[in-house]
Amino acid sequence: MRTQVAIIGAGPSGLLLGQLLHKAGIDNIVIERQSGDYVLGRIRAGVLEQITMDLLEQAGVAQRAHAEGLPHDGFELLFKGERHRIDMHKLTGGKRVMVYGQTEVTRDLMAARAAAGLNTVYEASNVSLHDFDSQQPRVRYEKDGVQHEITCDFIAGCDGFHGVARASVPASAVQLYEKVYPFGWLGVLADVPPVGEELIYANTPRGFALCSMRSHTRSRYYLQVPSDDKVENWTDTLFWEELARRLDPAARERLVTGPSLEMSIAPLRSFVAEPMRFGQLFLAGDAAHIVPPTGAKGLNLAASDVGYLSSAFIEHYRERSQAGIDHYSARCLSRIWKAERFSWWFTSLMHRFPETGEFGQKIQEAELDYLVNSEAASTSLAENYVGLPMKL
Question: Ion transport as a keyword (predicted)?
């Protein structure tokens, strides 16, 4: 089998890349080790930057996001028992974010790919990458007991943190940077109305909490828990009781509880792999970087990687230019490290760190007080939250 670009991974980054390349007339195949239903079953982020929305529009899959998504002009910081609103729209000259679940983004991309009759291989086992340091890279996989091989011009590794793409790179060729946090997020998805019109980020002596949503009738809530905690230690009742303790009285009064559709614990880490190009193999999204979810940057960074990579491939095929390909890693990493810094800072500001004790809590509260009362500090927060521009 022959294609121009072999894409490993059918998550949102791989599917978005495939759709953008298809729109540009570039042949591609997507290879995914899981089933389509499994991919859709992943519960992930739901705050999209304008850059991500622009790329979805470019790919022709933004209609439902515009129709069903929730545009947000601000969010609230809760500390010392009171909420303070950050007006992103005002502070950034009219920018906003869109609340629309990653699962729905994936569903839209899947539907577009199926409608176009594009080749997607699900449940591909034993995927392996070969000769990506040459001009004739190959991808091998097994499907229904039959071995297959794809020859291609380029391989895009969009298969996540535990995928085969980065693992195929010699250890001596890649530098890894990582920070693991001493806590995780216990998340609950429930068909209950959100506690507020906008997201609420809570810093409390009991730990961090986040009140988010997927729609006007479906909410997503998170609690900071120790890194060794287990879902089995929690029930719906215990979750709602603890969330209520971390909210202000007005939010607590508005809180509607109900049975959880999903409950899980996600560890928090910061991770970057450098570089992101190895010959004809390119890493994108979680294959190259992870951010703690506090700053809502994971999916958005993956989208900007795909924006850079699709532009590089289009430039290569249309103009016979290597410039985009040669600068891909540096362009991505410049934006990635800024998002890593913001996510680390926001995580450090909002979470309870056991080793810092009461002094650390007071310092956080003092910084938050400065943050909400300084237009310059609020503007910096808002600019990073809505997303820094892509530089070409």
Answer: no
Radius of gyration of the chain (CA): 21
Q: How far apart are CA 47 and CA 70, in angstroms?
A: 9
Task: For residues 161 and 4, give the distance between their C-alpha atoms in angstroms, rounded to a whole number.
Answer: 24
CA of 210: how far to CAs of 185, 239, 290, in Å?
Answer: 9, 13, 19
- Is 141 one of the annotated active-site residues of the chain? no
Of the candidates 194, 293, 316, 328, the residue annotated as catalytic is 293
Q: Which residue has the higher pLDDT, 284 or 356?
A: 284
Tokens matching residue 85: 């609103």
Which CATH architecture group holds 180-268+352-386? 2-Layer Sandwich (3.30)
Q: Is 316 a catalytic residue?
A: no
Let me know if 72 is a catalytic residue.
yes
392 band by pLDDT with thresholds 50, 70 and 90: low
In 3D space, the residue among 157, 115, 143 whose CA is nearest the CA of residue 22 turns out to be: 115
pTM, entire model: 0.94
201 is catalytic: yes
- Phi/psi for 35 (5° steps) reads -80, 160
Q: Look up residue 326 and give its amino acid.
A: D
- Predicted confidence (pLDDT) per residue in 241-273, tens digit: 999 999 999 999 999 999 999 999 999 999 999
Beta carbons within 10 angstroms of residue 323's beta carbon: 12
Catalytic residue among 12, 22, 72, 137: 72
Q: Which fold does the domain 5-70+97-178+269-349 belong to in CATH?
A: FAD/NAD(P)-binding domain (3.50.50)
**98-137 pLDDT, tens per residue?**
999 899 999 999 999 999 999 999 999 999 999 999 999 9
